Amino acid sequence: MTTARNMIKNRIKKHGNTLLGVGVYSAVIDQGSTQNKVIKIGNSLTDPWLAFYQDAVEHSNNPHFPTVHSFHYDRANEYYVAVVEKLLPEHPEGNATNSNLSCLQEILRTHVGQDSDYETFKDEIWANADTFNGSFYTDVEQLWSAVLAIKQLRDDTWDYETGEYEYAIDMHAGNLMFRQDGTLVLNDPLSDTEIEYEDDLAQWAEEHMGVKT
């Protein structure tokens, strides 16, 4: 945990990198290069993003998953580092913004959270296409495949004793991002149902680095 914080501090203060975003478990850093890549540094090996990467993203070529160029984790020091493609928070043409993605968010949450089928999903996507600029989601079958992979990952965390999932669906606008060509990317779709705040990176960044999160 301390190692991750030191790496983040070193990147920003010594190398002049920019902190693009920080959450409870990880921070995303822009090196300022022209390669369209960012560094994701995590301070916990229980971060649901790790399971998302290893179980859904790593061996997939689904265009709606982020491209991870390299990945390293250190079990002894409890941190990980991933070099990931740099994504846009909004559609490059401004057609699908956070404000009008609420309908799409709800569709994705619903189909990750319950048993469904492709035809129902496809009908809902196209029925609401005008709301979130559906012309950029023409490959609905690929998007459905991504939804199924995320659903399977979450379903595997069901605890029969507690009657709860370990992972919660985290399809808020900040986790729906875009490539320069307009492709929708499901960037970090799951979170812990009960988040451990003992080593909250966001709080640490505010207290020690003056970063507003």
Give the arrangement of secondary structure elements.
Layout: H1 2-13, E1 18-22, E2 26-30, E3 37-42, H2 48-57, E4 68-74, E5 79-85, H3 102-113, H4 118-127, H5 140-155, E6 158-159, E7 164-165, E8 167-169, E9 176-178, E10 184-186, E11 190-192, H6 201-209
Antiparallel strand pairs: 1-2, 2-3, 3-5, 4-5, 6-7, 8-11, 9-10
Helix pairs in contact: 2-5, 3-5
Can you characterise this structure?
This protein is α+β, with helices and mostly antiparallel strands and 213 residues long. 32% of the residues lie in helices and 22% in strands. The protein has 6 helices and 11 strands. The strands form 4 sheets. Strands 1-2-3-5-4 form a 5-stranded antiparallel beta sheet, with helices on one face. The longest helix is centred in the C-terminal third of the chain and has 16 residues, at 140-155.
What's the helix-strand series? HEEEHEEHHHEEEEEEH
CATH architecture of the largest domain: 2-Layer Sandwich
User: What is the CATH C level class of the largest domain, in words?
Assistant: Alpha Beta
Unreliable residue runs = none
User: Strand content of the residues, in percent?
Assistant: 15-25%
Strand order of the largest sheet: 1-2-3-5-4
What profile does the largest beta sheet have? Answer: 5 strands, antiparallel
Q: What is the CATH fold-level name of the largest domain?
A: Phosphorylase Kinase, domain 1
Helix fraction, binned, reads 25-40%
Derived structural class = alpha+beta
Radius of gyration, Cα only, in angstroms?
17 Å
